[in-house]
Amino acid sequence: MDAEIWVNAERLTNRALPSVTINMQAAASLSIRRAGIAAVMAGAVSSGHHVLGGFLYDTPWRLTVSFWIPALVLLIVSALFVYWRYKDQVVGQVAVWIVFFGGAVFQFGFTVFECIYSHILKNILFFGGIAQSTLLRLFPPPAYHLPDSLLFELTGIAQVVGLWAAWLAWRVFRTRQRDAIF
């Protein structure tokens, strides 16, 4: 009797395993796809913001930054693809570390500085009535401009989407295979 129950339980288990594996693979693919979409969105917002600032404030270095951003996005999206395609191989494991450093660590730091400090904090302090001398000390020209363009400030604040991109890149890295090579 026990042997019969064991055989039936094993049959049920064997039938259930492939669907669980497929669902886990689909979830991993969805996570990777979301991270790629978020990286592209964050890059587009930030690059557009820097192009706008380059023309508004006649600052060529902002235009230069706007060209580097798509290069980083391309690196991250390429690494996501390589990781998705070659998870079990060394190249896939190297790719997921590129996602971690470029998509999570760098993106997080860039967003905290470029969005939170350079735009959100600046606007809170500016519209909160802090002394202009303090603002100019915290946000010195020509790198910064006190709020004088609604579109520039809104696109600067919109760069907060980079935190979402960093979070999704972190989730891809965190959920990488537990038996990874490194």
Detailed description of the structure:
It is a single chain. This protein has 182 residues and is mainly α. The protein has one domain (2-174). Helix content is 82%, strand content 0%. It is built from six helices and no strands. It has helices at 2-56, 60-85, 90-128, 132-138, 150-158, 161-174. Helix 1 runs antiparallel to helix 6 (161-174), helix 2 runs antiparallel to helix 3 (90-128) and helix 3 (90-128) runs antiparallel to helix 6. The protein is elongated and about 55 Å long. It starts with a helix and ends in an 8-residue tail after the last helix. The mean pLDDT is 88.
For the biggest sheet, the summary is: none
Number of domains: 1
Order of helices and strands: HHHHHH
Which structural class do the helices and strands define? mainly alpha
Number of helices: 6
Number of strands: 0
Determine Rg (CA atoms, Å): 23 Å
The mean pLDDT is 88
Categorize the overall geometry.
elongated
Query: Low-confidence stretches at least 5 residues in length (pLDDT < 50)?
Result: none
Give helix % range.
Answer: over 70%
Distance between the termini: 46 Å
Beta fraction of the residues? Answer: under 5%
